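Supplementary notes (optional reading)

For those who missed the lab, this is the record we used. Protein: DUF4367 domain-containing protein. Length: 177 residues.
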Amino acid sequence: MKKMVAVVLSGMMLMSFTACSTNGSAKNNSQAPKSMQVIGAKNAQIPNPFQKFDSIAEAEAFAGVTMTLPSQVPAGYTQKLIEAIKNDMIQITYQSGDEQLVIRKAKGSKDISGDHNKYSENLSLTVGDKKVVTKGDDGKIRVATWIDGEYTYSISSTSDEAVLDAAAVSAMVDTIR
């Protein structure tokens, strides 16, 4: 009798675990937009908050932030992407081959670079009345951040070459608004 009760209870627990694990999500998942469908817990990702635009004016309207681009960028780089986060940030990506230079602007005073790496060199430059914090290794600047009024800015590079040095950063910071 005890074995029979144990077998029945085990069977009921197994069925309840199976029922709870699907939780109806298999049916409803196919109705979710493709970008939000979960394929598996290991593949679950946060949706990209950036939206692409064809013009700076469109991105500015979406982000609620205006931006003046630098008058010059390092040689070989061309504007590749214009993106924005609604009511938050503008991001402009320049590209040279596989290397990217990303410029961001948002309201506030936080570091918006998105680069959380540890660097051996953390320095500061003064450009006009702006204090620019730079981070990098071996004389190569990877990230530059600064605050101007109610806005925060960042420039970051994925280049292994020394495209961002103090002169290049100063020239860009001086004209970005």
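If you only remember one thing from this example: Strands lie at 51-53, 78-85, 89-96, 99-107, 121-127, 130-137, 140-148, 151-157.
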